[in-house]
Amino acid sequence: MKELSQINQSMVLKISEVDIYEKENIDVRKNIGFRSWFYFRTGWSMYFAFILSAVNTLTVTYYLAIEQIPFLKEIFPSFLHYVITFVMLGVPILITTGLIHFKKTSARKAEVDISVETNPYQLRNLVNSEMILLLNMKLARIIFNSEKGEKISESDLKELKILLEKSEKFLANRTVAKERDLEFFREINSSGKL
Question: Which class for 68: exposed (0-12), middle (13-18), buried (19 or more C-beta within 10 A)?
Fold first, then answer.
């Protein structure tokens, strides 16, 4: 039991070291220009440009195409009729297209893969949660067995020690660069364990 206590203390120490270290304190006021630029681009691309492009598409297609073709002019006698029809048909079609994009194609998976590959902090969170999960599962198994009155086996202690040593080795060589985290994830994917 004394050996398990030492392992638990070592693990508590290492889990607290898994977080990303801050190199320097970043004062938000120093970044107000870039933060404002980011918010501006988000507002423009997600809201303002979306509304303008919808209005532009409706206006151009009606006044340059529909007004010039007599049988279409009979179907849509006014711009308002065209907008209402477009909204009633277009919105469900676009919602279905978005659903297909997220649920039925590989496009969303590719977007997420690129996001993880280019964002070391997101990848770090995935790796941290995987490491914590593996350690917690092993400890939960040991606690469960000890609650059933079973003595902690040497093999369980050995497995826990190996898991801790691998985690310590990984953390000792870890930087904010994503290469170590990618290696960790590839190892997990190929072997199924740390």
Answer: exposed
